[in-house]
# Entry
Amino acid sequence: MSDQPPLLRYSPGSAPARSLEFVFVGREHLVQPALDSVADLLGDHGAAHHLFVGERGMGKSHLVSMIAGRLRRRYSAEDVRVVRLDEDPWSIRDYPGLLSAIVSRLGVAAPEGDVRDLENTLTDAAAEVPVVVIVENLGEVFGRIGADGRARLRAALENSRRITLLATAPERPVHITRHTEPFFGFFDVSDLLPLEVDEIVELVRRVARYSGHQDVSEFVTTDEGRAALAGAHGLLGGQPRVWTILGEISTVASLREPAALIRRVLDDLLPQYQDRVGALPPDQQAIVLLMVEAGGALTVRQIAAGIGVDQRSASSQLRHLATKGWVGTAPALTVDAGGDRRSAYYELREPLVRLCIQIKTGRGVPLDAALAYATGHPVAAEPGAMIESALEAFRADRDRAHLMVLPREWRTVAQQRLAEEAVAAG
Amino acid sequence: MTEPLAVNPGGSLSPDQVVGRDLLINQLWETLRVQSVLLSAERRMGKTSVIRKMAADAEAQGFVGVIRSVEDCSSAGEFVEQLAAGLRDALPRSHRAAATLRSLISTWGVEVDSGPIRIQPRLREDWKPQLQRLFEAVTDHQDRPVVLFIDELSMMLDKVRVRDGAFVARDVLDSLRAARQRHPSLRMVVSGSIGLHHVLGDLAHPGSAWAPVNDMDRVELTPLVPAEATSLAYRLLAGARIPCQDPGAVATAIAAEVDGVPYYVHLTVKWLRALGPGHLVGTEDVRRAVQAGIEGLPDSWNLSYLGERIIARYAGSATLAEQVLDIVATAGPGSAALTTAEIGRRLGSVTAGVDETQLRHAVELLRLDHYLRRDNSFQLSIARRYWIMSRELV
Ligand SMILES: Nc1ncnc2c1ncn2[C@@H]1O[C@H](COP(=O)(O)OP(=O)(O)OP(=O)(O)O)[C@@H](O)[C@H]1O
Ligand SMILES: [Mg+2]
# Structure
């Protein structure tokens, strides 16, 4: 398949449907509910509006392209009209601009007159044939149409019930989380989570095949290949774009010695992360840096102490970071543990953030050690000294704090070890 | 009814997707035979869904029903246009008022039979007589009474206030009230997501006795009763094809854990669906789902408004209101509800010099905003759990 068009990693909106389907991994469960909602829309059983949230590279455009493609194949234009707005909403300056963009894509002549005429044109068209509107960067669009535009839009949607929005956003827009906003709680929100190792193996296999690297696509399904990807996953996390890049550039030889490969991917991504960290307010930057340094998960108390603010403001900053997709709740331990059970642990959702910042600042677990560990010691092999000492401390008092300080991927290794020990002990 | 139903947290339901509410709806129709209704509730509780189900049934109840969400109206003139268009489309041609309404519309210089109604600017500016004529037109007969379901009136009033001034917004409310009094065959069901009391507070002259809605029966929409919530959960589980150990037990657990709030029933089932088809769901999963909704990051159930609204809207009473909730939240779910006096006593040990009037005012606000019941207990255990978590009260 080496004569295939490139995968257009940065603009799936314009990729051919066939290639999108081919490399679509780990998001299938999000497609069906959206298709079901459209079926309900067509049957006059109300309108559900979906919002897919994921940071850059998480596969939002890919997902909505897939949904649009399937809708176009399943239905004719007499059943439902699917309208897709530009990914970058620069051309939408205000609410009339949004309406005109939709109306013109419906092929309806824009009326002379004001907003109300535009609204009527849209809802009249939808009364004939239901409309699905795909909107990317929802928060940006909502910002541009203003408070009055948002109120009018919600009224139009509620009064018509023949229009469904399929939206994406890099973070939850305030226009759906703030109680006084018309769209408060209006969208069915789904997060695009990082891919798991199995899904990554499948993605790399497909991308390699698509790019004509048959040998790579076979190698990654062997134990050795899988272990190499699992090790790299510990460092790179589960962003599909990362693995699409990696799938396109890897060879069997480079996968056997992946440090250089990983560095190439990181170099490709570094500017993107620098911009993102740079755009955070100072307190939130401080929390991110603290988490990079810690490597593992932290409690609110630890974070407050670490950046020198009180717990209330630490926890409110943490919430902001979580809304923007930086931070998540650390998963519960799979082993029996004590310690301070009431407080939750938080950690960076994307290990990539950690790596990119480490490259810049040299802080935290040294990158070279991390690279060597991840690439030289796949999940099943001997854990490093940090894991060993954490295990030791944990065995002594079974306080989970000892395990939480480990980076997530090492924590998994430690938990596995403990589970094996438990089994061995009967 | 056990038909499968699609998960739809937050979207616009069609009447057939609105589960339960039957008893309430019957009571509302009874009330409407004598009086108009002001329907209030916490956001997302299901106000719009209720009135939509009623509007679909209006004819069977002997009414002509018109339902409209009016948050798109920024002026009183637009409001008149929207009502007129809705009435025109709802009145059957055979209805005695249909012809009168048509001749009124023709005086506005617009297409009579279909399409948007745009009153000529000069008449539109002078909206009040047009509104009066509209109500006269549709009530001037011995035919079926008309019920207007006006959703998001508070949002519209707020926009009118900002654009044209408080007196115009007051005028709209006064005109609606006058119409209710003048026309015995006209009823309204008014609802909105911002509490009308907040908007009235912004509109009233301080200290005035202005009460433009006190002729209406105030009905507070509470959660679904347990049987309804269980049936909703059951149907959503089936619609999402979620494998359960014991679907009945899971549905019952969902209804109980979310206090019967339908929106949270949808969200819980959505969370359970994400566990995947390979996971056999049990009641323990339900507890995890609700816990994640309340405590998980990001705040997926959007409960942070519980704290934010107090800071944004309670002005001088904010701190006091927070302390009241702290006390109520930690009083223990099993223990008897606290009287306001008892709250005052306990507050006394927290802050010196708590003024009795201030305290009563704060408690009243908390009731109007659906935090507290009349007996000062939390209306929703979810709100209580969120409050304890976010204020770190354990
Ligand atoms: N009776 C019901 N049966 C099933 N689902 C319901 C019911 N009532 C409400 N819901 C759920 O709650 C959501 C919100 O309902 P609705 O729009 O009626 O609330 P609302 O009170 O009008 O909200 P707002 O104050 O924001 O306008 C619906 O999208 C649906 O998920
Ligand atoms: Mg509503």
